[in-house]
Design a protein that fits this description.
The complex is a heterodimer of chains A (750) and B (297).
Chain A: H1 15-20, E1 35-41, E2 47-53, H2 55-59, E3 63-67, E4 77-78, E5 85-86, E6 92-93, E7 99-105, H3 108-115, E8 119-124, H4 131-135, E9 148-156, E10 169-177, E11 189-194, E12 200-204, H5 209-220, E13 227-231, H6 247-257, E14 261-264, H7 267-273, E15 280-288, E16 294-304, H8 312-321, E17 331-339, H9 355-372, H10 376-383, H11 403-412, E18 426-439, E19 449-458, E20 461-468, H12 477-489, E21 494-498, H13 514-539, E22 550-552, E23 555-557, E24 563-566, H14 567-571, E25 576-582, E26 602-615, E27 620-631, H15 638-657, E28 663-664, E29 667-668, E30 687-692, H16 709-712, H17 714-726, E31 732-733, H18 737-741
Chain B: E1 2-4, H1 9-18, E2 23-25, H2 31-37, E3 44-47, E4 57-59, E5 63-66, H3 72-78, H4 84-91, H5 96-101, H6 104-110, H7 118-124, E6 127-132, E7 135-140, H8 141-144, E8 158-165, E9 171-176, E10 187-194, E11 199-205, E12 212-213, H9 215-224, H10 235-247, H11 256-282
Parallel strand pairs in B: 1-3, 2-3
Antiparallel strand pairs in B: 4-5, 5-8, 6-7, 6-8, 9-10, 10-11, 11-12
Helix pairs in contact in B: 3-4, 9-10, 10-11
Chain lengths: 750, 297
């Protein structure tokens, strides 16, 4: 194994700065002559705008400019999948917190105070706040083209002819999930700097520079080369940085004022500044044979997409294709719909449409196991996907799918010892859950990446420089690129450059894809560099080198590992530089009627076990033991893998027990970390991590994308444990104390 | 905004007298948050953080005399033997950083309904010293909080000391929230037993507009004379104690959560009475209440 190469766990280079507080996040940026901007947002979930009066705000001392929709020079709408979201509200607002005007001023306090002076004359309308109502033909349309954003259908087996077979055991259930937030710690922030030639540079915390750049240029009405986006330090992402937030506002003000403009959302504002995870209502029916084989699944899933489409079409697609979970089922009928409402817009969040069905199908699996008198693990294992099995889309799994083994690992872990002093009001329960998730963009999207690798001798020593535009959102992709270069080129001195939007795209840091795709591009660029080195060796008079010769510890080594030439000497003053694109294997759209098609490049698999203690009198849940088992294909950085698995697990626990954006008539009730409760260190035990490495032969190094999996099955595992402890049939997360006390005598009453 | 920084009580009381509209601030865990999040804009801040000696405490034969700037960490970590109940309450406040900043005087002064120390100051029978240029007076905690919220602190007065009697028996404090810490309490409960006097004091916090002594619940226990025995508390008595605790006052916000908070308070009261009684029976003598540090749910 190469020192610092793949399979090792080098320390993060950004670690000390982040821990000590010296890391420069996007909110820390500043520039000479910089001004600040603040946003006025709608207090109403639904209203027509009769007029906007900026006079008082403009007169406020220190105010430099105010922009509204009328000032947007280019396209007034944005959206990655459906262009439906106003850069600033025009004739109506469709959700609480929608941006209406932006004020620039000499300092932040002035900008915020003046934003309150922009007078908007609203004609308040009754909001559509319920997804089921939104689908009603009589419901007010949130957008002119109606409230259905997307509908994905899966028809497999007998479902294609409309008849599902009769089953020995039938279990029906309805489930719902509240609205979860990504709750990154670094709120939306950025710095726009005019370039003096009519263009603008935006330093921004984002997950994908290039898609932002494209949209910003369109909205500014500028040619693409006049808008450059640069990575700024990201304080967490989890999907919340996939859509535009302040991008166009800051750039437009910078261009109008010809001064740098800084924007930073407050914590409260951040809850309005990005999309959330879709709340969902799911109705399931499972049929199984008496010996415990799944026969059919019928699922109807409605996702509340809120006021704008954002990623709803792809999320509905994922909800449908993942509706059955990691199980083999011959007959499948799924309808997944995403709808518009006047609730806050929902879009990408870790798990991306697979979290909601996982809570439902795993709840169903426990009910089926109970109905069949089987252990929940045994029942799952009997139906688990394996390599060679077909998914509901008809796609055949052509790489390892060790679902049964993951569950076996968890079942084999010791349980925490029973506490003999445990009071009678505390009940303990154990729950299991498993999941699968597609890696990378699906349904035909070519989300490729670009990397450049340069090899040279600087100051007498070899230096490799690797460049890409991959967004480092905390997942460690900077370190991953370094490790791959170390392995491929056998060089110790490696610089990683985060390029801006003028460099080739890396695709987004989302869909658990960045290590796979940018890692693939870096590997390919390295291999081209190596080929050049071997050619150079041949030119220098050596015998024809075999293309299988490697670069190791600063030398070219032959197939037996013997050094053939010193790399530094061979290079001399030459610079070798190669750029490569990596395109993952082709995927295909789903058939619109049957949902059949090879839609995904790869799947990941994970499972959780949770052990909880429930205070039966207070309805409070304490998670006392947590374990995750995940197949990661190949752990490029095992310590970073474990970190992702732990962090994702905690996010899933949050959804199970605490995290929910609470709404009342479309209004957000708890936009703060005092009201939106994340689990703290005191709420989660140390997470046990079981890593499997079953290489995917189609992927670079056999790796699997890992980032999202751990957040998916943690939620149903905790819910299952709470059910096991209490016997209560819980059908909604987050589980609240009153759910656990329903029907019990009230000690406050006589 | 004007910021006054008196160095002594003499200067502080003079400033308070001259500018009664000034907002006193010590650790800033309430005032600074209000300024940042709730657009609270005081014209004058009276910063008491430089008043010399105000962060000290003195352990006397019967009580601990605390300067008002004794912080929660100090109470939790240095006074847990003398004031086990108050130490539990102080140790439950916010996060470590908040406990290092937040003070006993500040907790009393802002009298936030969510303040964690209030019920235990009531249950422990603490007294508060209020001073002005006119002189000083001692007010029992029972008379310090106003029923609808707020305190009896005069416009020209400052809290200059807090006197808390040494524990004379088991003390319990417990609060509940949706997560294990750093969260607004849904209710809190404090209880002290006085071994020598065979007395009980109990109070509830983070519930109504003001913290409340549970006089009817206390009376129930004292009149039952169970504290003179050495047996198990009758289950019916414990349940009635819980019920009286939960109905002594009403949650500040009615609505979906109110019912839960009420029943949770009944549970806390009953549970902590039972546990305090077990400690009472288990302890052979007064003094070291190590069990007071336990925080079993």
């Amino acid at each position: 194994m190469t020192a610092q190469g793949i399979g090792t766990s080098p320390a993060r280079t950004d670690g000390p700065a982040k821990v000590s507080g010296t890391f420069v996040y996007s909110s820390d940026l500043s520039a000479e002559d910089m001004v600040w901007a603040a946003t006025l947002r709608s207090p109403h979930p639904s209203a027509l705008i009769r007029s906007i009066d900026t006079t008082a705000a403009l007169k406020f001392p220190g105010v430099l400019d105010v922009i509204t929709h009328a000032d947007i020079p280019g396209r007034k709408l944005f959206g990655q999948m459906k262009v439906d979201q106003p850069v600033l509200a025009e004739d109506r607002v469709r959700h609480h917190g929608e941006a209406v005007a932006v004020v620039a001023a000499v300092d932040l306090e002035t900008a915020r105070a003046a934003a309150g002076l922009v007078h908007v004359d609203y004609d308040v309308r009754p909001p559509v706040t319920d997804a089921a109502t939104a689908l009603d033909a009589a419901s007010d349309p949130v957008h002119p083209d109606g409230n259905l954003v997307a509908h994905t259908r899966i028809r497999r087996g007998a479902a294609q002819s409309g008849e599902l077979p009769a089953a020995d055991v039938v279990v029906r259930g309805s489930y719902s999930l509240g609205m979860q937030d990504q709750a990154f710690l670094g709120t939306e922030s950025g710095l726009a700097v005019p370039t003096g030639d009519g263009g603008v540079e935006l330093h921004i915390a984002t997950q994908w520079l290039h898609v932002d750049q494209e949209q910003v240029a369109l909205c500014l009405g500028l040619p693409p080369d006049k808008v450059v986006l640069k990575h700024a330090g990201v304080g967490g992402a989890f999907g919340a940085r996939e859509d535009l937030s302040l991008h166009v506002h800051a750039c437009l003000l910078a261009l109008r004022l010809n001064r740098p403009v800084k924007m930073v959302y407050t914590r409260t504002e951040s809850f309005f500044g990005h999309v959330h995870r879709h709340p969902a209502e799911l109705h399931y029916e499972h049929g199984a044979t008496s010996d415990g084989r799944l026969l059919y699944v019928r699922a109807d899933i409605v996702l509340d997409g809120g006021a704008y489409a954002s990623s709803s079409p792809a999320i509905a697609g994922n909800a449908a294709t993942h509706a059955v979970g990691p199980y083999a089922v011959p007959h499948v009928q799924v309808d997944a719909r995403a709808v518009y409402t006047n609730n806050p817009p929902c879009g990408a969040m870790r798990g991306f449409g697979t979290v909601q069905p996982c809570f439902a199908y795993e709840s169903q699996m426990d009910r089926l196991a109970a109905a069949l008198g089987m252990h929940p693990v045994e029942f799952r294992q009997r139906n688990a996907l394996r390599e060679g099995a077909s998914l509901p889309t008809g796609q055949v799994l052509d790489s390892p799918a060790p679902v049964a083994e993951l569950l076996e690992r968890l079942r084999g872990l010791p349980l925490p010892a029973a506490d003999p002093a445990q009071p009678a009001h505390v009940a303990r329960g154990v729950g299991y859950a498993a999941c699968l998730k597609n890696i990378g963009f699906s349904e035909g999207f070519d989300d490729y990446s670009t990397a450049r690798v340069r090899l040279e001798v600087v100051d007498g020593a070899l230096l490799a420089t690797v460049s890409s535009a991959a967004a480092e959102v905390g997942q460690g992709v900077v370190g991953i690129q370094r490790q791959i270069v170390a392995t491929e080129l056998g060089v110790h001195r490696i610089e990683v450059r985060q390029e801006d939007s003028r460099f080739g795209t890396a695709g987004p840091s989302s869909a658990s894809r960045q290590t796979y795709v940018t890692g693939g591009a870096v590997r390919e660029a390295c291999r081209r560099v190596r080929a050049d080195v071997l050619a150079l060796l041949h030119e220098s008079g050596a015998e024809l080198p075999s293309p299988s010769w490697q670069l190791h510890e600063g030398a070219v080594v032959d197939d037996a590992g013997r050094p053939v030439a010193r790399l530094a000497a061979l290079l001399g003053g030459r610079v070798i530089e190669r750029t490569a694109e990596f395109h993952h294997r082709k995927t295909f759209p789903l058939d619109p009627e049957t949902g059949q098609g090879n839609s995904s490049m790869q799947f990941g698999f994970a499972a959780h076990r949770a052990v909880v203690e429930v205070d039966r009198e207070l309805g409070l849940v304490k998670v006392i033991d947590l374990a995750i088992a995940q197949d990661v294909g190949r752990a490029i950085n095992p310590e970073a893998v474990a970190g992702q698995l732990r962090g994702g697990t905690v996010q899933g626990v949050g959804l199970a027990l605490l995290e929910e954006i609470e709404l009342d008539g479309g209004r957000v009730l708890n936009p703060s970390f005092a009201g939106y409760l994340l689990p703290t260190m005191a709420d989660v035990p140390p997470v046990r991590v079981e890593i499997l490495e079953r290489a995917d032969p189609h992927a670079p190094y056999g790796l699997r994308g890992i980032g999202e999996l751990p957040s998916i099955s943690a939620t149903p595992a905790v819910a299952a444990a709470v059910r096991a402890a209490t016997g209560i049939d819980l059908d909604r997360v987050p589980i609240r104390p009153d759910h656990l006390l329903a029907g019990l005598p009230d000690p406050a009453q006589q | 905004m004007q910021v006054l920084r008196p160095q002594s009580w003499h200067e502080a009381l003079a400033a308070r007298s001259e500018l009664p509209g000034a907002t006193p601030v010590a650790g800033g865990t309430d005032v600074m948050v209000a300024m940042k999040l709730r657009h609270f804009r005081p014209e004058v801040l009276l910063d008491l953080s430089r008043v010399s000696g105000s962060e000290r405490y003195r352990i006397g034969p019967d009580s601990v005399h605390c300067g008002p700037r004794v912080c929660h960490t100090t109470v939790a970590e240095r006074l847990h033997r003398q004031l086990p109940g108050l130490a539990l309450a102080a140790g439950s406040v916010g996060s470590r950083q908040v406990r290092n900043r937040g003070t006993i005087g500040g907790n009393l002064g802002t009298a936030s309904p969510a303040g964690d120390l209030h019920p235990m100051l009531l249950a422990a029978g603490a007294d508060v010293e209020l001073s002005s240029v006119r002189g000083s007076r001692w007010v029992p905690a029972d008379g310090f909080y106003r029923d609808g919220g707020g305190t009896v602190l005069g416009a020209d007065e400052l809290i200059t000391a807090v006197r808390v009697p040494l524990a004379a028996g088991p003390q319990r404090f417990q609060k509940i929230g949706r997560r294990q810490g750093l969260v607004k309490s849904l209710c809190s409960f404090a209880l002290t037993l006085d071994r020598g006097q065979r007395r009980i004091r109990a109070a509830v916090g983070a519930y109504g507009a003001a913290p409340v002594r549970l006089l009817a619940a206390e009376q129930l226990i004292e009149e039952s004379r169970v504290l003179y025995g050495a047996g198990t508390l009758p289950a019916a008595l414990v349940a009635e104690f819980g019920r009286l605790a939960a109905t002594a006052t009403t949650p500040v916000e009615e609505g979906a959560e109110a019912g839960y908070r009420r029943r949770a308070l009944a549970v806390l009261a009953a549970r902590n009475l039972t546990q305090a009684w077990a400690m009472f029976l288990a302890e052979g003598h007064d003094g070291h209440h190590r069990d007071g540090q336990r925080q079993d749910p």
